[in-house]
Design goal:
- The complex is a heterodimer of chains A (253) and B (288).
- Chain A has ten helices and no strands.
- Chain A has two domains: 39 residues; 211 residues, MetI-like (MetI-like fold).
- Chain B has 288 residues and is of the alpha/beta class.
- Chain B has two domains: 213 residues, P-loop containing nucleotide triphosphate hydrolases (Rossmann fold); 65 residues, no CATH class.
- Chain B has a six-stranded mixed sheet with strand order 6-7-8-3-9-10, sandwiched between helices. A four-stranded antiparallel sheet of chain B has the order 2-1-4-5, with helices on one face.
- Classes of the chains: A mainly alpha (253), B alpha/beta (288).
- Chain B: This is Nitrate ABC transporter ATPase.
- Chain B: It comes from Skermanella stibiiresistens SB22.
- Chain B: One of its GO terms (molecular function) is ATP hydrolysis activity.
Chain lengths: 253, 288
Amino acid sequence: MNATSSGGSNAGWFSALKLIALLLVLWQALAWMVGDVAMRTPLQTMTFTANLLTSPSFWPHLAETGRAFGLALLLAVVIGLAIGFLLGINRFASDVLEPVLVALYSIPKITLYPILLLMFGLGVAAKVAFGTIHGVIPIALFTLAAVRNVRPVFVKTGRVMGLGTGRMISGILLPAAMPEIFTGLRVGFSLTLIGTLLGEMFASQRGLGFMLMNAIGLHNVDVIMALTFLLVLFAGSASGLLLFLNRRLYQRA
Amino acid sequence: MTSIMTTSKPITPTRTPSAPGAAQVSLRGVDKEFIRPGRSGETVHALGPIDLDLRRGEFFAVVGPSGCGKSTLLELVAGLSTATRGDVTFEGKPIHNRIPDGVGVVFQEDASFPWLSVRENIAFGLRRIKIDPKERERRIENALAMMGLTSFAHSFPAQLSGGMRQRVCIARTLVTEPRLILLDEPFGALDQQTRLLMGDEVLNLWRKTGATVFLITHALDEAAMLADRIGVMSARPGRLIDIVETGWPRDRDSRIVQEEAFGAITARLWRSLRAESMKAIGKPEVEP
């Protein structure tokens, strides 16, 4: 059993390494094709990223984005899970409100940004709000579907055991729905990050989004590539971590 | 109610019959109607009227054609559903959509929680019950041992066969030490050999716990092998059209399928059920 799982784990790492190698080769090929007017090679990007990370002016921007993103994600998760659970356990409410959520989700969020700026002003609050509205609806929709899809026999078992609403949610609904909720959290995580960065790109004086917009204006390909590389690394690692946690905690076999 | 139910004499008992006790569950004039979903809002008479007493400590099985309301009957006794008319009482107290204490239910579908180990699944049954940790451990160990799951205590349901997962569900019910165990076709998804063996285990549990067992099944041989009394239900709206006393001794196992009386019981069940099953599939029996 151990030998098998260790063999399986090694095969998984080997596949991941092969995928990374393939992506680097494609990146290198693309950089050669489009030239240095638009891209940098992986080696150039990594070297510049290392320099950027040692520059003292970079860290306040990262901290600003981190703070805004952390708050936006917290709000998106808490509000999204609450909406998802409330609608998921109430069939009538979910039948009525799910189409409304989907309609809201299909609105291009950027059209709401001027309104958010007027509401919250130029600062971290507007970025947090913009990040939150990107992440909250997918988390709510995934949670709603996950709770509604919990096998009825689990709920019946909970009722037979005389569990109240709180224990039913914490003991049965939440763990049973968790694999799908994790998918929602992964999507919500990425969209909240996009929302926060977009907020910084369009109306901000600090943060990675602001740095990116500035670099675009100055045609600084090195900064654009390094920031994109860092964001991909961060989003990819977080998504991988959530996937790992989900498997570890709820899909034990 | 002018009952069409008949209580038969025991069919050639071959050993000493078990002695059933006083009524523990009582159903009086119980009817269940549903509103059909959709625009019509039509009322469907699913069950009843039913009058039935379950004696304390007996093994009672219910057989009937598909869709006759067997599971609805179990849900009424379990407190998972409310009767449209009539009264259901457990130990003298009415059940009104409230799960009574002392009742355990095992469903046909696999209800083991995949995110918990076997041991955690069984311990989950004690979540609402306040007992000291030593007693808790004793009950869990007992349930594990009784269902032959001790060596699988740390496995997860996905690592077990269908029969073993069903044992986990039975153990999770047993750990609460119920006085009434309701089984809703618990072996429906298992193969014939496993069903016979699981039947032996259920009989063993029934003897050890002294609980009353109410079994819903579509398998006539299963009912004939396990039960002290078998209620035969009509096609929808389900009513009890016959109650057969098997006369089996309390100390029995799956070997009774070889007895002559076993054949007589299943034949009698099928005689009562054939016309109802034909009705249930929309082909009323025509007298030759």
